[in-house]
């Protein structure tokens, strides 16, 4: 039987200044910084995770901030737009908050749905969509209440260099259901109630260039470690070349690049971010995997200090 993903697990992007990254996603959007760690492949670079109060799958947006990094260009072969879900009736609150904090907002629509579109400090494209589905967030920040707080991902928009191949992979490898098509977009729905609406831009777009201000990869959910192995087999049987399973401390990961050039990951829901610190303390200190602990002093000396702070 074909596996079907519940939807997005996390989205990871390149940005520049780490404090401005924290300011935007924690200070402005009100997400919780659930993990402060490093890029395991480049320990002089932070890996910052933001999400709901627990950093639940479907809520996690992550970043590699590197001052002075080369700027990228959004285009085909990337996730072009990240969509966050907010409670029904909360868009006026968000429009007012973003305007007050100096973030330019425009109203757009897709598939009959009104969206607020804006960009973060590095140019990553973001939309807010009102969605009745998904649990409300209990993480409190400033005047953002549970009736307004970001729930997690609404979904995203894929920019493909070969849209027909990407459409096939989303439907027949990831198992999403094709539900609508209009104005050059094809809409799919995953089985979950968060991070479950994926639009594929089926038009030709300029090729994207990786770098600051672009998404590195989008990760899809696997229920557990056993299913994760089954996902790797399913991806391989579809003709892709998945990586071996990689332990990322907070989830296991398998990566593959689909035919439209977008880097996909399959990530496990467990063990989660309370794997190495308590749920109450998430994001409070720099967490390192065991093999980097002997180098903690050196690593910390090479990282810029960051803090979650109010911008109001």
TrEMBL record:
Domain VOC: start-end pairs: 7-131, 152-269
SUPFAM superfamilies linked: Glyoxalase/Bleomycin resistance protein/Dihydroxybiphenyl dioxygenase
Name of this protein: Ring-cleaving dioxygenase
Database matches in CDD domains: PcpA_C_like
UniProt xrefs under PANTHER family: RING-CLEAVING DIOXYGENASE MHQE-RELATED
Keywords: Dioxygenase, Oxidoreductase
Matching InterPro entries: Extradiol_RC_dioxygenase (IPR052537), Glyas_Bleomycin-R_OHBP_Dase (IPR029068), Glyas_Fos-R_dOase_dom (IPR004360), VOC_core (IPR037523)
Organism: Paenibacillus wenxiniae
One Pfam family it belongs to: Glyoxalase
Record Gene3D superfamilies: 2,3-Dihydroxybiphenyl 1,2-Dioxygenase, domain 1
A GO term for molecular function: dioxygenase activity
Transmembrane segments: none
């Amino acid at each position: 039987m074909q596996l079907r993903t519940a939807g997005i697990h996390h989205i990871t992007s390149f940005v520049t200044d780490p404090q401005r990254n924290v300011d935007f996603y924690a200070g402005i959007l009100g997400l919780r910084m659930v993990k402060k760690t490093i890029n395991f492949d480049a320990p002089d670079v932070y890996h910052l995770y933001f999400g709901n109060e627990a950093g639940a799958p479907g809520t996690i947006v992550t970043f590699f901030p590197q001052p002075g990094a080369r700027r990228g260009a959004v285009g085909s072969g990337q996730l072009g737009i990240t969509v966050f879900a907010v409670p029904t009736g909360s868009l006026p609150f968000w429009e007012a908050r973003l305007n007050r904090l100096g973030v330019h907002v425009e109203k757009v629509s897709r598939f009959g749905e009104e969206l607020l579109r804006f960009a973060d400090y590095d140019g990553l494209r973001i939309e807010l969509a009102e969605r009745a589905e998904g649990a409300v967030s209990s993480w409190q920040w400033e005047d953002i209440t549970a009736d307004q707080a970001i729930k997690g991902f609404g979904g995203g928009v894929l920019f493909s260099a070969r849209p027909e191949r990407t459409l096939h992979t989303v439907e027949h490898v990831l198992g999403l259901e094709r539900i609508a098509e209009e104005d050059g977009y094809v809409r799919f729905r995953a089985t979950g109630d968060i991070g479950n609406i994926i639009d594929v831009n089926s038009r030709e777009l300029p090729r994207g260039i990786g770098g600051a201000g672009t998404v590195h990869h989008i990760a899809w959910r696997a229920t557990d470690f056993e299913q994760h192995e089954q996902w790797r087999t399913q991806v391989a049987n579809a003709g892709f070349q998945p990586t071996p399973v990689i332990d990322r401390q907070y989830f296991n990961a398998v990566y593959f690049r689909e035919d439209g050039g977008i880097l996909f990951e399959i990530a496990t829901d467990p063990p989660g971010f309370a794997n190495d610190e308590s749920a109450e303390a998430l994001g409070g200190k720099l967490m390192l995997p065991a093999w980097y602990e002997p180098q903690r002093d050196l690593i910390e000396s090479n990282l810029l200090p960051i803090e979650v702070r109010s911008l109001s």
